Amino acid sequence: MAKRKFLLASFLFFSFYFSNYDDSFASGFGEDEKTIYHYDERSSTLDAPAYITFNPNYRTKDGRQSPQYRFYGGNKKFWEEFHWNEFHWYSIVPRKNPKADDMNMKNMLENNQEELGCNGAYLVSSSDCNLKKGRQDPRTRQFMGNNSGTTLITVGPYKGKYYEWRYLGYTPDGEPVDNPFFPDDYTVQNTQWYKRNWQTLNEVSEYIEETRYDIEREKKSNGSKKNFCQRIQDSFILTEHFNKMQSFMRKFFLFVRIPTFLRVL
């Protein structure tokens, strides 16, 4: 009986403490989504879109259209692709009768970025941060050798080679999809993360923007990552309060049990 009273009191204490935290969500920047889903003859409730386009009405937090819409416009179609029944994305390559230039993944906005991995391993050229000489095994992270890529290069000086591009395409929501076969920029032997040139979202905002998922996560955690240390401090305070509460409850129940014991005698 005493144990149940203790658990009930602890539950009420935690409920009161955590009621002071505000876990509200943001609705994003306006009501328009970044992409428009097109289903053709598919079911909009059971199936993934057949293709997507970028929405001209969507706005980023600075009030601009998305980087992808500014790059492609609103008529470019991105078709659904599968690989090994494991990897799913929406590709810039047309579904039917693509020409050589249509298959050039350099035409994808994010495969033109110049901030990430520009001194990484296995790059074809130091002037291109997004094309590597072969693939890696996505499970073991082992490089499989030159000309082992999954993508045929159809134009330019490397025509006929099988290489790997950094990005495959987009999610249905219009966020870039990393290529799992693209070799890591830094190998497991080079783990000195503190010597790397880390980039913030603001520094690569021309290609990658903060998504609605980032915004919702920040709001749910009662602010941004700047509150992280404060919440750690709060957790220590909570632990201290709990320990005091636990000590008090033990003394309280001991006090209650003693008169009961005396009455039995």
Tell me what the structure shows.
By secondary structure, the chain is of the alpha+beta class. The protein has four helices and ten strands, in the order αββαββββββββαα. The chain has helices at 2-18, 67-72, 212-220, 228-264; strands at residues 35-38, 51-54, 78-83, 87-91, 123-125, 128-132, 151-152, 162-165, 167-170, 176-178. The strands form three sheets. It has a four-stranded antiparallel beta sheet with strand order 1-2-3-4. A hairpin with a 5-residue loop joins strand 9 and strand 10 (176-178). Helix 1 (2-18) packs antiparallel against helix 4. The longest helix is centred in the last third of the chain and has 37 residues, at 228-264. The chain is globular and about 80 Å long. The two termini are 20 Å apart.
Radius of gyration from the alpha-carbon trace, in angstroms: 27 Å
Looking at the chains present, what oligomeric state does this protein adopt?
A: single chain
Number of helices: 4
Task: Spell the H/E element sequence.
Answer: HEEHEEEEEEEEHH
**Overall 3D shape:** globular
- Whole-Å distance between the termini? 20 Å
Binned strand content: 15-25%
Strand order of the largest sheet: 1-2-3-4
Detail the poorly predicted runs.
Answer: 16-29, 260-265
Main beta sheet strand tally, sense and closure: 4 strands, antiparallel
Give the fraction of residues assigned to helices: 25-40%
Number of strands: 10
Assign the structural class, choosing from mainly alpha, mainly beta, alpha/beta, alpha+beta, or little secondary structure: alpha+beta
Provide mean pLDDT, rounded: 79
